[in-house]
Sequence to fold (559 residues):
Amino acid sequence: MAEEKKSLNFIEQIIEEDLKADYKKESLKFRFPPEPNGYLHIGHASSICLNFGLGETYDAPVNLRFDDTNPIKEEREFVESIKKDVSWLGYQWAKECYASDYFQQLYDWAVVMIKNGDAYVDSQTSEAIAEQKGTPTQPGKESPYRSRSIEENLDLFEQMKNGETTEGAHVLRAKIDMESANMLMRDPIMYRCVHKPHHRTESEWKIYPMYDWAHGESDFIEQVSHSFCTLEFLPHRELYNWFVEKVSKPGEFIPKQREFARRNLSHTVVSKRKLAQLVEKGIVQSWDDPRMPTISGLRRRGFTPESIKNFAESIGVGKRENMIDVAHLEFCAREDLNKKAPRVMGVLDPVKLVITNYPEGEEEWLEAENNPEDEAAGTRQVPFSRELYIEREDFKESANRKFFRLTLGKEVRLKNAYIIKGEDVVKDEEGNILEIHCTYDPKSKSGSGTEESLRKVKGTLHWVSIKHALKAEVRLYDRLFTEEAPDGVKDRDFLEFVNPDSLNVITGYVEPSLQSSVELDKFQFQRIGYFCIDKDSTKDQLVFNRTVTLRDSWAKKQK
Fold:
């Protein structure tokens, strides 16, 4: 049976149609164009995967271009974090480019536009310009400076460039159509004065191009064939084409802008401004806090590059915005980690278990499988002794038939070890259980092949030997917001929906094989969830982040 051919998404269909028309495969070129004014988030990850994925599909170059036209908000720190994120996802760009590389060319083109009567210097306030723009149903009004002479415009623009005018005194506007149905075409601003050093050009420039002017021209300079943007840029396409038309010559290759819908993720926000608020107000510790939807936050939490790429591929690209449940992202993490993460034992809410008939002072090392999903993962040795920790919830003095864990008078198996039977408990004055006493069957050792070891019991518990256990800080993360769309509730601030239980820090105990773990090492704590080593971890104090639970517990919790 022939292999079923994968259906194309609408963006791939656009490219295929262009190739059938007048595009050559060699002319295909894509770009990922972040603004270096914050850390990348899960929405950017989808765009990265789209553009670099197209590069892989068509064996075409993909540029990483920083649209760095706003020195007020941009920093070198953000540039480096973006490069790290793209590389971590497994992509390599053809060229590292910056809109600031083209400042001189953009300025030269702006001068030509002034000479051709396509641009003018406006000396109105920003408020006056906004008021004269009109409304979607009312045409705008022309600026009183629209008829300035070419000579005066050139002189003022030169003064702006040299820093001889104050910030806000003048702007350069394109001369298009103040009655256009598309308000973006009503003489948009091309340049504004900003007397602040740029992260790359330092104090060389006193004027900076607006995004709409720089973006399309940068695509044109780099000869990008397809410029893919999110849906909010659809009204900008007309202006994108107008600007490129003004600087191109007949027969030159013209980039094509096309738009796709962003995918919103439930129980989070992805606005850089709002993410910055979370950091500034101390609601989270940093941009890479594991509760943040930033790529650096997801990486620190323990997500793998493959899980994020699988997520992006599974939600695809579309023409309409929709809400993706964060549970789907967590599912992608579980699916990938299940294949890769070594199984280990850790106890997060410990209660002491004493095996009364196990010889005092004796210990043995038992063989444990590292990952049943990966034969090559092999086995490890875990220590066993008379006194162990088990999870407090794994024991009840008395329970009904549906409770398959430890209770008095019933048997369970200790993972990789022996069958034990609950015998007694030791309590404090308030009735809290301090110790559970049990007996074990010495002939029931896992994997020994004895008749006793093959005896069927309904429950299997994880454990750690108290004598050998490593004390660890465990950070249990949950959704950052209780509301599905925290920034979509009318007349409510998104900060009102911050989940007070998004982080719970506890002390747990883990098996000694984890002593040599390093940052971002990932594990499945058996029967609990997936965890990774945090960057705060030290040789003397292990720190684990919970990536995801073994199963989606949020829906059950909400019910």
Q: What stands out?
A: The chain is about 25% helix and 25% strand. The mean pLDDT is 95. The two ends are 46 Å apart (CA to CA). Residues 35 and 66 are 6 Å apart (CA to CA).
